[in-house]
Amino acid sequence: MTDFTLTPALATALFVIACLAGMRYRSVWKAEGPRSRLWLYGVIAAATLLVLGFVPMRG
């Protein structure tokens, strides 16, 4: 059986990635940068937050 859980270290790393991608999204949005970068950073932030929200954490 496959164990789909996050370790605390992996969850922390994903949270940091989500925060950094969100900050980059906001900076590109305020600078009215290219939409492709908005999509890139937005998808990265959304995907990592969805993983954190729906995958249980090992504890």
Give structural notes.
This protein has helices spanning 8-30, 35-54. With 59 residues, the protein is an all-alpha fold. The chain is elongated, with a radius of gyration of 14 Å. The model has no long low-confidence stretch (mean pLDDT 94).
Summary, kept brief:
With 59 residues, the protein is mostly helical.
Pick out its properties.
single chain; 59 residues; mainly alpha; 2 helices; elongated
Tally of alpha and pi helices:
2
Helix content: over 70%
Structural category: mainly alpha
Total beta strands: 0
Largest sheet: none
Oligomer category: single chain
The share of residues in extended strands comes to: under 5%
Q: What order do the helices and strands follow?
A: HH
Q: Note the overall shape.
A: elongated
Please state the CA-atom Rg, rounded to the nearest Å.
14 Å
Weakly predicted, low-confidence segments: none
The whole-number mean of residue pLDDT values reads 94
Question: How far apart are the first and last residues' alpha carbons, in Å?
Answer: 19 Å
